[in-house]
């Protein structure tokens, strides 16, 4: 590498992107100085991803242009963006897991020759890495790397491809707090040296305040504000993000857990996912009535497998899951008799049939239940009139916004799908509620409403097992916090005395 | 919440929606399922017309011949209905598993095994009274098909073997097995140049239905379609199957017995397909032989897709395709076209119908939730973010 590359600045003018009649991005002009660390804030669906995809050439903007280092650049595809020194790191990993770091880097290069001279490549890589602040072992297969190392490798890959303007899409969602701190700190240092410009999509105020120098806020596709980081308070930023809407604070937990009524009990549970690669072993987990137990952990540490066992999707190889004292495998008769409800993550993907109507989706729990004898055998004939009546009732009570109860549920927004699922699962008395990442990808208003409903269920005496990758959510809602790492429960603390540093260390696997 | 004293019978979530709009919304939702497949079929016929024009033949002459050969006279109509009968059953073997999201294309194998089981069951039953033997023979056929296609469902549900591929391969096995038995252990020594099983005997043969003169397979096929419709649309079992077909994970989380539903629906589909074979033997051929594998199972796939897997729509579509197949002989003779011509038509129709599957939900005219979007300030549809 010859001279030290210098950062480049990017500016958009009147960037607009329409999908049909809907403007996902409306006349956004934004200037990111060379060597800046710029944060892009906004709720889900505010247009952040659309914006960066337009800059990177994934989408052709309906109107507007991009200037790179002050000159208009026609970027029609990601390759063109790469050629101009623009790189992007996605929320999810794009590395080939079976290849080593070095192999991943070399094959990502557009000009990699058909036959590789590994000796020369290695020498070049070593020289390149010497100039990098990131320390990485490039000889290990990516599959063996921890999430933080993978994220670093993704960033290094972009720098290896000579990116001098780096876009990060929620880069820390898969990292522990410590890992996030380290990665962002190193990037910030690079911008300070003037070798890199960073544009980071984020919704974590703490990160933005610590690492970014300037920020812009998008709401409903429009640029609604921004400025230097020090000038804006968290309240300012939140106000810009959510606009005029009033967000209710989450209701407080009322009453103590009922120590005498243990609802869920898991003992010696041993299970393996369908691929056979991921194993969980849970020695002991109890949830009592009127108690929210939060399972914290970095994504991919067995939370999904635990949820799948409780939801009847994978069978346990050993151990015992008991609800109200009797074995539980997730069969319909059992969940009905013991009043167990399950709200999986990404409800449209996991809890709904997207092409069936809202009314039909709302009927999943009750369509075969005898009203006069709920614990009796299922009915044979489908009562569509009752289904429609019940749907209208639930839609009104839970304020589900839909054109009609007959519209396919896939046409609803994420928050309304989640509301519909909550309406279905929380209308009848519930003894045990299992919730997984309930607020993934929802906006502020929906998040606070959904959390309020979960707390309300708990206050009414429901035992809640909350599996979430959002540590703030766990801290806010739980009575008791359990950390899951590598398929095991490694740490437990009452929420009242929880200490975020200790939790973070256990999430990272230091126990 | 405010109690809604007089809920309207037509579904609309927003109170105060005018009745006229509600009716239009209801019509629009239901018309989509008619207009798109009919439009696709028309496009398929137009493409076939182009194909004929390229061959120097007149598309209009073809229309005339199909009308004359398939529907124009009582004889032609009877011929079409006779061919429609097995198509009804074969299409159900596709439509029932389709509710669970499975594409089963091995109905042909179940038809052949059903016919073979009929002929095989007739031998030990010889001498029994017909009212006893006839249902036993039909039962044997249905059982054979149920086991065969039910096994496809079992493989999918419990071993994650793709049902489409498994059913197709098992269809070849079924046909090979039937050929082996017909030419070997079950062969009637008197069948010289066309290997066949022993005849089932006149006592066990089914006569024609009164008035229309077509064999009983047609009537039973229609009854089967109605039963399948009631099962899928009016029972909780059918609803559970639709949930599983719409999203397996959601169905599992609801605690529904997905595996048993898959095995049950595939087995029922197989039983229906096998009944097509039963009627071919017990009402048409009199013995089981190579003509059982006449391609009804494959045409049935087309029928089911054109009917959008709806058992009620299967009935008219089966008659239409029965008519086209009935006129294929006339097409050959009068237009000097090879008999594969009809296969070209069927292939084109299938292709266009599959393509048309991507159009559902795209037309504003048919999707009331898109109308509302125009009126409301914010869009209801999810937008790529």
Give the topology, please.
The complex is a heterodimer of chains A (511) and B (385).
Chain A: E1 10-19, E2 22-32, E3 37-41, H1 48-56, E4 63-68, E5 71-73, H2 78-83, E6 86-89, H3 101-108, H4 118-130, H5 147-160, E7 165-169, H6 177-192, E8 197-201, H7 205-211, E9 214-219, E10 222-228, H8 234-242, E11 258-272, E12 279-289, E13 291-296, H9 303-310, E14 318-323, E15 326-327, H10 332-337, E16 340-343, H11 347-350, H12 358-362, H13 384-397, H14 414-426, E17 432-436, H15 444-459, E18 463-467, H16 471-477, E19 480-485, E20 488-494, H17 500-507
Parallel strand pairs in A: 3-8, 3-9, 6-7, 7-8, 13-18, 13-19, 16-17, 17-18
Antiparallel strand pairs in A: 1-2, 1-4, 4-5, 9-10, 11-12, 11-14, 14-15, 19-20
Chain B: H1 19-54, H2 59-71, H3 74-98, H4 107-125, H5 130-159, H6 163-183, H7 216-234, H8 236-246, H9 248-253, H10 258-285, H11 296-306, H12 311-326, H13 328-335, H14 341-356, H15 368-375
Notes on the protein architecture:
The complex is a heterodimer of chains A (511) and B (385). With 511 residues, chain A is α/β, with parallel strands linked by helices. Helices cover 32% and strands 25% of the residues of chain A. Chain A is built from 17 helices and 20 strands. In chain A, the strands form four sheets. A six-stranded mixed β-sheet of chain A has the order 6-7-8-3-9-10, sandwiched between helices. In chain A, β4 and β5 (71-73) form a beta hairpin. Chain A is globular. The two termini of chain A are 42 Å apart. The model of chain A has no long low-confidence stretch (mean pLDDT 87). Chain B is an all-alpha fold. Chain B is built from 15 helices and no strands. The interface between A and B is large, with 67 and 51 residues.
């Amino acid at each position: 590498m010859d001279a030290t590359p210098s950062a480049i600045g990017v500016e958009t003018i009147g960037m607009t992107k329409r999908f049909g009649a809907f403007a996902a991005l409306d006349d956004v002009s934004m200037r990111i100085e060379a060597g800046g660390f710029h944060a892009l804030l906004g709720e889900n669906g505010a247009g952040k991803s659309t914006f960066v995809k337009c800059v990177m050439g994934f989408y052709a903007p309906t109107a507007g242009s991009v200037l790179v280092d002050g000159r208009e650049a026609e970027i029609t595809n990601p390759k063109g963006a790469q050629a101009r020194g623009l790189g992007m790191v996605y929320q999810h990993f794009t590395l080939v897991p079976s290849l080593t770091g070095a192999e991943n880097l070399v094959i990502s290069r557009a000009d990699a020759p058909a036959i590789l001279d590994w000796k020369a490549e290695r020498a070049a890589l070593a020289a390149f890495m010497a100039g990098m602040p990131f320390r990485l072992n490039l000889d290990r297969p990516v599959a063996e790397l921890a999430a933080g190392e993978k994220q670093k490798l993704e960033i290094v890959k972009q720098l290896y491809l000579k990116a001098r303007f780096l876009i990060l899409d929620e880069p820390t969602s898969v990292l522990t707090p410590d890992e996030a701190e380290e990665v962002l700190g190193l990037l910030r240092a690079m911008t300070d040296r003037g070798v890199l410009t960073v544009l980071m999509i984020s919704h974590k105020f703490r990160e933005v305040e610590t690492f970014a120098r300037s920020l812009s806020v998008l709401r409903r596709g429009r640029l609604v504000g921004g400025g230097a980081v020090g000038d804006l308070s968290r309240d300012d930023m939140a106000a810009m993000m959510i606009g005029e809407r009033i967000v209710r604070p989450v209701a407080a937990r009322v009453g103590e857990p009922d120590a005498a009524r243990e609802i869920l009990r898991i003992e010696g549970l041993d299970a393996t996912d369908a691929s056979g690669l991921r194993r969980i072993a849970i020695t002991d987990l109890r949830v009592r009535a009127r108690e929210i137990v939060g399972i914290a952990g970095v994504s991919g540490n067995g939370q999904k497998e635990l949820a799948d066992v409780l939801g009847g999707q994978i069978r346990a190889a050993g151990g015992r899951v008991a609800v109200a004292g009797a074995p539980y495998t997730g069969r319909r008769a059992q969940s009905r008799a013991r009043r167990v409800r399950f709200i999986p993550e990404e409800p449209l993907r996991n809890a709904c049939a997207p092409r069936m109507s809202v009314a039909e989706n709302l009927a999943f729990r009750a369509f075969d239940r005898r009203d006069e004898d709920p614990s009796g055998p299922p009915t044979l004939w489908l009562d569509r009139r009752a289904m429609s009546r019940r749907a209208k009732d639930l839609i009104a009570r839970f304020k589900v916004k839909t054109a009609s109860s007959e519209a396919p549920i896939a046409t609803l927004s994420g928050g309304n799908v989640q509301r519909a699922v909550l309406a279905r699962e929380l209308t009848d008395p519930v003894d045990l509620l299992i919730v997984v990442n309930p607020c993934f990808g929802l906006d502020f208003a929906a998040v606070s409403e959904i959390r309020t409903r979960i707390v309300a269920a708990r206050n009414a005496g429901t035992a809640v097992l909350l599996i979430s990758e959002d540590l703030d959510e766990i801290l806010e809602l739980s009575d008791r916090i359990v950390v899951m790492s590598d398929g095991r429960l490694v740490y437990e603390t009452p929420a009242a005395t929880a200490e975020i540093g200790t939790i973070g260390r256990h999430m990272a696997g230091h126990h | 919440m405010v109690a809604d004293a007089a809920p309207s019978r037509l579904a609309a979530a927003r109170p105060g929606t005018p009745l006229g709009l509600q009716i239009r919304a209801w019509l629009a939702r239901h018309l989509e399922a008619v207009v798109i497949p009919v439009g696709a079929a028309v496009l398929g016929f137009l493409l076939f017309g182009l194909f004929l024009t390229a061959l120097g033949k007149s598309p209009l002459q073809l229309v005339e011949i199909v009308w004359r050969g398939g529907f124009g006279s009582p004889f032609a109509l009877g011929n079409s209905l006779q061919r429609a009968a097995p198509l009804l059953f074969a299409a159900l073997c596709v439509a029932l598993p389709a509710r669970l999201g499975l594409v089963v294309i091995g109905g042909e194998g179940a038809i052949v095994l059903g016919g073979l089981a009929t002929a095989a069951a007739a031998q030990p039953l010889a001498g029994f009274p017909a009212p006893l033997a006839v249902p036993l023979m039909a039962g044997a056929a249905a059982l054979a098909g149920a086991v065969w296609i039910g096994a496809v469902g079992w493989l999918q549900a419990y071993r994650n073997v793709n049902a489409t591929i498994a059913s197709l391969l098992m269809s070849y096995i079924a046909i090979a097995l039937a050929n082996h038995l017909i030419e070997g252990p079950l062969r009637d020594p008197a069948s010289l140049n066309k290997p066949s099983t022993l005849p089932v005997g006149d006592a066990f043969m089914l006569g024609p239905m009164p008035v229309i003169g077509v064999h009983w397979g047609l009537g039973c096929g229609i009854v089967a379609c109605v039963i399948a419709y009631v099962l899928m649309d009016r029972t909780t079992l059918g609803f559970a199957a639709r949930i599983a077909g719409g999203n397996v994970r959601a169905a599992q989380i609801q605690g529904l017995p997905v595996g048993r539903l898959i095995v049950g629906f595939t087995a029922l589909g197989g039983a229906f397909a096998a009944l097509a074979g039963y009627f071919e033997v017990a009402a048409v051929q009199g013995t089981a032989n190579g003509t059982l594998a006449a391609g009804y199972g494959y045409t049935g796939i087309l029928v089911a897709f054109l009917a959008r897997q709806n058992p009620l729509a299967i009935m008219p579509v089966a008659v239409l395709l029965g008519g086209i197949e009935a006129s294929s002989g006339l097409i050959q003779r009068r237009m000097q076209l090879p008999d594969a011509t009809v296969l070209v038509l069927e292939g084109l129709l299938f292709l266009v119908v599959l393509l048309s599957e991507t159009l559902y939900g795209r037309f504003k005219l048919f999707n009331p939730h898109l109308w509302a979007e125009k009126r409301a300030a914010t869009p209801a549809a999810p937008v790529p973010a």
